[in-house]
Amino acid sequence: MRIACVQSHVVFNDPAANAKNLIQKLSDLKNQGVDFALFPEAYLTGYCVDGEVAAKEIAIPVKGEGNLITEMPEYMTEIQAKCEELGMGCVFGFAGQDDEGLYNAVALFEPGQPARWYLKVHLPYLGYDRYTRPGKELPVFETQWGKIGVLICFDQRPPEAARVLALKGADIILLPTNWPVGAEVSAEYMTIARASENRVFVATCNRVGVENGTKFIGLSKIVNISGKVLAAAGPEEEIIIADLDLPQARQKRIVNIPGEYEMEVFASRHPELYEVISTP
Known about the structure:
Elements (H helix, E strand, L loop, with lengths): L1 E6 L7 H16 L5 E3 L13 H7 L1 E2 L1 E3 L2 E4 L2 H13 L2 E10 L2 E9 L6 E4 L20 E3 L4 E4 L8 H9 L4 E5 L7 H15 L2 E5 L2 E4 L2 E4 L3 E3 L5 E4 L5 E6 L9 E5 L3 E4 L16
Parallel strand pairs: 1-2, 2-6, 3-6, 10-11, 11-12
Antiparallel strand pairs: 1-17, 4-5, 6-7, 7-8, 9-10, 12-15, 13-14, 15-16, 18-19
Helix pairs in contact: 1-3
């Protein structure tokens, strides 16, 4: 699987313009042999709002049932059609609304499959997330490339979320983000830790620039199952690409010296001691 993380600016409250930019980038990436493209959190809409009224103004109407998207605007349908045409997959974020209110979500498009989505579960008191409801599930998506888990930005902070996806069989965790100044630890260290502690690939895609006074730091990364950084971006617009052998993530035994120095990532756990983690 050749994956690209498209670290870029976002046009605030102009989803049609952002969708057009996304479609163009997909075409460019196809010429580089990319199979799957990851875009930032809230890529279609922007994120930085100063109140609930503004949050409702940027949220686009997307409805779903379970993990499937059932209704979406034409510009999202056009993205899906481009993925079909190019034979590529992609994940991108958006501020959305449905009959239950506001939410923060990503869409996952794969050729030959219905549109799927994930709603952000862990919400910081920040920007658009101050007015949204949390998602209720941590799904793993079966795809032609492998099993994909998706988290959004602050979802990475509690280690349990990535661990749950790994235990469900995720080969890779995709993390679209809106990391502002102050989130450098998440970008530089937590990403690597989540990959290493679960022996899964992790790809993060942040945005850059300034939106309504908030500056974003970039620093997107693609990390392998041992925590090695395969590709990393700086603080400006940049596309990073890496080739991943996703089945490697299914080997959870670490063999440093055969028969002398070996470790089991999951088999060594003692879940009976962890009850406090799931106690409200």
